[in-house]
From TrEMBL:
Belongs to the queuine tRNA-ribosyltransferase family. This is Queuine tRNA-ribosyltransferase. Keywords: Glycosyltransferase, Metal-binding, Queuosine biosynthesis, Transferase, tRNA processing, Zinc. GO terms for molecular function: glycosyltransferase activity. Substrate binds at D89, S90, G91, G92, F93, D143, Q194, G221. The gene is tgt. Zn(2+) binds at C309, C311, C314, H340. Residues 11-372 form the tRNA-guanine(15) transglycosylase-like domain. Pfam families: TGT. Pathway: tRNA modification; tRNA-queuosine biosynthesis. It is an enzyme of class 2 (transferase).
Length: 376
């Protein structure tokens, strides 16, 4: 259940009660595709760096170790030793990314495994069954993530099919949650708004899915090639037509500056692989923007990654040492930088919530964008 605590303009401050704890929003979900954060980050580390929600991937866990294996082991929470909320995406985006190996039909999608080429079918019911086996807190509806740009007629037909799929997802989730041996009988379902960069299609789809009274609503199909201005325009168009008493999730976004802009437009949930992926390559976020620790100028730099940061990396190590670890190809380099970047994002969301509570979000946003100077 979502409770709107405060609203200033479009900016929302809320809390979302789930079977695995209450989420303070706006929130950034830390992405652990295969029930683990890439970069040797444990579930205990996630608690230390302030993670509220972990996000795992339906498609990848279905392939390995297999959702039925996870179910036999007690569900994804027990499997990865994480007692806070977990959101699982539906597999729709992965199917989108496998464009050369897929065939979309009304019943679902036929595609080949990226691991061994094995032929796989996934439709709305299969996606819900996999996510039910995983037992995540929040399951995402199965949809088609539309390439950008796409012809209007294709987008219209795809969105209509996504709506039909969403209804099937809801019916199957309702059924699964009544079964005696279901891992999580209170599993929640978020629907996904699609429509490419066509405002009118997006709005009509938002109106349609809002009537289904789901647990939350996501804006999908963005951050796939459109400009930031197009993305912000779509958010502005869609948010007013989604229920105010449900959380709104912008999928796959993104940069710290994108998050600030989207919060200003009424978004509550975010996720992105970017902070962990950047960290694994020595690109780290600081209050002055992003820096690359591989640069020679950091060879003798005895400062922490970010002065004043309280993450495990900044409290104990210097830029020079972490740079040395990368040059020596030591795994610790990736671990420290991923921890730092995720801490940076989680701390940013905490500061955003404080700014909304204190009625100074607008000033906070301007100050942050000025500090980052376009380097975030």
């Amino acid at each position: 259940m979502y409770k709107l605590l405060k609203k200033t303009g479009k900016v929302r401050r809320g809390e979302f009660k789930t079977p695995h704890g209450t989420i303070q929003t706006p929130v950034f979900m830390n992405v652990g595709t295969l029930a683990a954060i890439k970069g040797a980050v444990s579930s205990m580390d996630l608690k230390e760096i302030g993670c509220q929600v972990e996000l795992s991937n339906t498609y990848h866990l279905h392939l390995r170790p297999g959702d039925k294996v996870v179910r036999q082991l007690g569900g994804i929470h027990k499997f990865m030793n994480w007692d806070r909320p977990i959101l699982t995406d539906s597999g729709g985006f992965q199917v989108f990314s496998l464009a050369s190996m897929r065939k979309i039909k009304e019943e679902g999608v036929y595609f080949n495994s990226h691991i061994d080429g094995k032929r796989i079918f996934m439709g709305p019911e299969e996606s819900m069954q996999i996510q039910s086996n995983l037992g995540s807190t929040i399951a995402m509806a199965f949809d088609e993530c539309i390439p950008n740009p796409s012809p209007r007629e294709y987008v219209e037909n795809s969105v209509e099919r996504t709506t039909r799929w969403l209804i099937r997802c809801k019916n199957e989730m309702d059924r699964l949650n009544t079964l005696e041996n279901t891992v999580n009988k209170n599993q929640m379902l978020f629907g996904i708004n699609q429509g490419g960069v066509y405002d009118d299609i997006r709005i009509e789809h938002a109106k349609t899915i809002a009537k289904l009274d789901l647990d939350g609503y996501a804006i999908g199909g963005l951050a796939v090639g459109e400009t930031h201005e197009e993305m912000y325009r779509i958010i502005d168009s869609v948010v007013p037509y989604l229920p105010e008493d449900k959380p709104i999730y912008l999928m796959g976004v993104g940069l710290p500056s994108n998050i600030l802009e989207a919060v200003e437009r009424g978004v509550d949930f975010f996720d992105c692989v970017l902070p962990a992926r950047n960290g694994r390559h020595g690109h780290v976020f600081t209050k002055d923007g992003k820096i690359n620790l591989m640069n020679a100028k950091f060879e003798l730099d005895t400062a922490p990654i970010d002065q004043g940061c309280q993450c495990p990396a900044c409290k104990h190590y210097t830029r020079a040492y972490i740079r040395h670890l990368f040059k020596a190809k030591e795994m610790l380099a990736m671990r420290l930088c991923v921890l730092h970047n995720l801490y940076f994002y989680n701390k940013l969301m905490e500061e955003i919530r404080d700014a909304i509570d204190g009625d100074y979000f607008s000033e906070f946003k301007k100050e942050k964008l000025s500090q980052w100077g376009g380097k975030a």
